Amino acid sequence: MTAIRFDHVSKWYPRYQSLSHGIKSSLLHLPETLRSLKRERIRILEQVSFGVEKGETVGLIGPNGAGKSTSLTLMAGVVEAEDGEVIVCGRISPLLELGAGFHFDLTGAENIMLHGVLLGLTRREVISHMSAIIAFSELEGSIHQPLRTYSSGMIARLGFAIACHLDPEILLIDEILSVGDLSFQLKCNAKIDEFKRQQVTIVLVSHSMAHVQRLCDRVIWLEKGKVIGEGAPSKILEEYEKSVTLRHVEGRSSAA
Ligand SMILES: Nc1ncnc2c1ncn2[C@@H]1O[C@H](COP(=O)(O)OP(=O)(O)OP(=O)(O)O)[C@@H](O)[C@H]1O
Ligand SMILES: [Mg+2]
After folding, report:
1. Cα(248) to centroid of ligand 1, in Å?
2. Which atom number of ligand 1 is nearest to the Cα of residue 97?
């Protein structure tokens, strides 16, 4: 059974331009300026098609700016595709980029409540999960402090603890495992193994080849918004590493 399907998905974002005619002239011709700002768009994903089966753990890899996080935000329904179709079957628990969706003036506990309610739980349901989430995050000492006082590892812990305790059928994880300390990484790995046994579908975005190799059943390689490889982790990771190394060597020899 398919949990996620991307069918020829394309996504554009506006290209933000500098006001090349100067601020004064741009303000004087405001309607024209606004029209030109709206017109310019860049394609982030181009005709991307792939499927994720229920219970599978799929890794999304590729260089910075390849479109990995954009793909996850499409799966989470945070943004919509202009072209093609995104089909998701199951309750999603998104753990998007570090701190995304969090409010930094609210405390850790308030953020747990906010996230839970936004993901469709009642206040009572969130309260029933609250102590388990706090215990898993090991943030008891700071849970009533505003998030702006947290370190990146603490934010990652809170995000992962929330995502894990909202009974997900599909878990989206965007580059968060490597932010936490070793003990947190071991805990995440154990939790992900448990989810895999329970047939939870997982999409993992990571630059850690070790994490992808260990956790994923299949890997999709994105580059400049296109899928350029898909298959067994060992095969795709080897091809990816070769391509990155080759580009690095070429870059060094042309700079010499
Ligand atoms: N809200 C936005 N508005 C305009 N452009 C955006 C927006 N979000 C992402 N982009 C652009 O889309 C492209 C893909 O970004 P995305 O965040 O999906 O990359 P990524 O593969 O997750 O990269 P990284 O490995 O650095 O996290 C980038 O060029 C980025 O600048
Ligand atoms: Mg990203």
Report:
1. 22
2. 27
Contact between 132 and 112 under an 8 Å Cβ cutoff? The reply is no
Give the tens place of pLDDT for each residue, 60-79. Answer: 999 999 999 999 999 988 89
Say whether pTM exceeds 0.85. Answer: yes
For residue 55, give its domain range: 1-90+217-256
Assigned domain for 238 exists: yes
Q: How far is the CA of 153 from the centre of ligand 2 (A)?
A: 17
Q: Is residue 203 part of a domain?
A: no
Distances (CA, A) of 63 to 214, 224, 244, 245, 247: 20, 8, 9, 12, 12
Query: Is residue 59 situated within a structural domain?
Result: yes
| 12 located within any domain | yes
- For a pocket test of ligand 1, which of 10, 17, 44 has the largest count of ligand atoms closer than 8 A to its C-beta? 44
* Residue 231 β-bridge partners: 219
Note the pLDDT tens digit of each residue in 107-141: 999 999 998 888 788 999 999 999 999 999 999 99
62 lines ligand 1 (CB under 6 A): yes
Question: How far away, in angstroms, is 156 Cα from ligand 2 center?
Answer: 15
Check pLDDT > 70 for residue 14: yes
Q: Is 57 in the pocket of ligand 1 (CB under 6 A)?
A: no
Number of domains in the chain: 1
Distance from C-alpha of 192 to C-alpha of 213, rounded to nearest angstrom: 13
Identify the CATH number of the domain in which residue 39 sits: 3.40.50
